[in-house]
Predict the 3D structure of the following.
Amino acid sequence: MSEPKLKFFDERKTPIDMLVLHCSALSGAEMFEVFNAQKVSAHYIIDENGQVLSGVDEAKCAWHAGKSFWRGREGLNSCSVGIEISSPSLGQEPYSEKQISALIPLCQKIIAKYKIPAFNIVGHSDIAPLRKVDPGCAFPWERLAQEGIGWWPKGKEATSSAAADVKELLSSIGYDTRDDEVLKASAYAFCRRFLPQYVKKVDDVSYLIEHVLPDNFDFMREDIFLTALFSANVFF
Ligand SMILES: [Zn+2]
């Protein structure tokens, strides 16, 4: 693999126990240019042809997660490896087979090396739900789970319960639910990952970047609510 080429990172002081998956609407070559200009980075970049390129050495903390929260922890650059994938639609259209075929063994290698638990394999939008939509509603989480990368609900049972349980569910998975605004954004991030049928595609990617949460999203709608609880039943 090529030498790491991204310039911005910190020394690592915390052991790695998370894997964060991203996408960017840039080509691989553009990512190197833009990331260095914007003072961000990632450990790996999977370009539009499915080629894996090195951004930052895993031994350093790449600047990919930004302000972030998962399972009670914040500032997740310190404990994670970050992978960026080129996706012109920002993950709303299916990734290419070449890209996913490159991503799977890369993730498997990182997970085995650092013994990363399934619950700590996340998308950027899971850990920064107010700011980020990547890796998007077309990201193949179910397929990855079949390859041992992250979890996916297996059951089919739905149960109804009190409204408070949605907050409890999201929080128990790891999402930030510390105030109503982030709770709503976390519910949408949950849908983006597990129930993408509730996520509306947006043609204009620059608009999507500015409008992470649609104005009319109501996570208390009964159909979403029940399905969320169905998921909870099989997670825990
Ligand atoms: Zn990202």
User: Anything to note?
Assistant: Residues 9-146 form a domain with the Lysozyme-like fold (CATH 3.40.80.10). The pocket of zinc ion is lined by residues 22, 124, 132, 134 (CB under 6 Å). The radius of gyration is 17 Å.
